[in-house]
């Protein structure tokens, strides 16, 4: 108990407000006010505006992808990404049990069924071995894809999540999913600025999705981005998130079910200013992680760090305790 109290006291010294430490506090020290005022002065405050285009361009550069689509939030982005790779009603999507509810919700929004599998201890993300074992037992390749022999449903996608910014073992997961003809959608909501073997997370699957909620490493209050190296797929994503309206000077014709999932220009302006500071945010996170690692290693508590082939953004810091009793005591002490 005393060890935990000492840990809490140490953590408090890292923050100016020692009475309450938030999950993540946004920092607005760049061009946020300037870009917001510019947007207001332009009167283009909704989903059409220069900052939306600039944000999408910046996201392609940061993630090393060919196309980015700005959306209203990360959950909407995952919903659209799953639709882009072909998930349909009554299909199944492999995902991990340790994740935020939005991951599963996005599957349900497509009227599909989640298959919850275990995570790897070292990444806290979807275990390629667990996926392989499941598919070896229940998978069946047919002409149009992989099916679950037990349910007779198509397994239309695999949706790993880079938990707390720590990348999953992507090479192995890609190998397994390619073997079974299952496209990967990366839930990179928490991992902007993280890398797997020097490649940005979100860029290794068929589609990647990021979140810019208020507690993320970069925020615009709310918002998300869908990224892909498939330009045609990216254009399709832009189309269906913009109500699926056929371009025309005055006629309103929509040729499929679309969604009004567009990011407003105001949010995009804030996002652009934040993205300009991403490298500094990442450096600050790594410095804090190093301080925590040094402290906890000297006090018998395991501090979770990145795996050798990855570079994590350390969005949230994580410790590992010996058992549930210790975990619960630690949570009680810190809350």
Question: Would you kindly provide a brief summary of this structure?
Answer:
This protein has helices spanning 2-12, 32-42, 50-63, 74-84, 101-109, 128-138, 170-179, 231-240, 265-275, 278-297, 324-334; strands at residues 67-71, 92-96, 113-117, 139-142, 145-148, 153-159, 185-187, 195-196, 199-200, 207-211, 224-228, 302-303, 310-311, 319-320.
CATH homologous superfamily assignment of the largest domain:
Type I PLP-dependent aspartate aminotransferase-like (Major domain)
Q: Helix coverage percent of residues?
A: 25-40%
**CA-CA gap between termini:** 14 Å
| Low-pLDDT regions | none
Q: How many β-strand stretches?
A: 14
Percent strand: 15-25%
- Please outline the major beta sheet: 5 strands, mixed
Shape: globular
Mean pLDDT: 95
Describe the fold and architecture.
The mean pLDDT is 95. This protein is 39% helix and 16% strand. The protein has 11 helices and 14 strands. A hairpin with a 2-residue loop joins strand 8 and strand 9 (199-200). It has 2 domains: 2-23 and 278-334, no CATH class; 32-275, Aspartate Aminotransferase, domain 2. The chain has helices at 2-12, 32-42, 50-63, 74-84, 101-109, 128-138, 170-179, 231-240, 265-275, 278-297, 324-334, and strands at 67-71, 92-96, 113-117, 139-142, 145-148, 153-159, 185-187, 195-196, 199-200, 207-211, 224-228, 302-303, 310-311, 319-320. It has a 5-stranded mixed sheet. The longest helix has 20 residues, at 278-297. With 335 residues, the chain is α+β, with helices and mostly antiparallel strands.
């Amino acid at each position: 108990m005393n060890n935990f109290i000492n840990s809490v006291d140490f953590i408090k010294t890292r923050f100016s407000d020692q009475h309450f430490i938030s999950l993540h506090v946004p920092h607005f020290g760049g061009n946020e006010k300037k870009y917001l005022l510019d947007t207001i002065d332009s009167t283009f405050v909704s989903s059409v505006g220069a900052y939306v285009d600039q944000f999408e361009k910046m996201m392609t550069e940061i993630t090393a992808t060919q196309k980015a689509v700005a959306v209203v939030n990360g959950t909407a982005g995952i919903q659209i990404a799953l639709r882009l790779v072909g998930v349909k009603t009554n299909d199944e999507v492999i995902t991990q049990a340790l994740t935020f509810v939005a991951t599963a919700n996005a599957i349900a929004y497509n009227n599909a069924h989640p298959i919850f599998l275990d995570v790897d201890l070292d990444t806290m993300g979807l275990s390629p071995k667990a996926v392989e074992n499941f598919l070896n037992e229940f998978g069946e390749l047919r002409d149009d894809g992989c099916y679950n022999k037990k349910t007779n449903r198509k397994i239309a996608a695999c949706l790993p999540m880079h938990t707390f910014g720590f990348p999953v073992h992507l090479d192995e997961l890609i190998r397994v999913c390619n073997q079974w003809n299952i496209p990967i959608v990366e839930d990179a909501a928490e991992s902007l600025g993280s890398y797997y073997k020097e490649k940005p997370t979100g860029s290794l699957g068929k589609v990647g999705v990021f979140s810019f909620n208020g507690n993320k490493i970069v925020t615009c209050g709310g918002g998300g981005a869908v990224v892909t190296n498939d330009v045609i797929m990216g254009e399709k994503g832009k189309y269906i998130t913009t109500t699926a309206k056929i371009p025309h000077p005055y006629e309103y014709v929509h040729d499929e079910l679309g969604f009004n999932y567009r990011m407003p220009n105001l949010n995009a302006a804030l996002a652009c200013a934040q993205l300009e500071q991403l490298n500094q945010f990442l450096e600050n996170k790594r410095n804090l992680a190093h301080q925590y690692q040094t402290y906890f290693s000297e006090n018998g508590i395991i501090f979770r760090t990145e795996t050798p082939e990855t570079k994590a953004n350390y969005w949230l810091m994580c410790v590992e305790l010996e058992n549930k009793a210790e975990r619960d005591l630690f949570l009680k002490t810190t809350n």
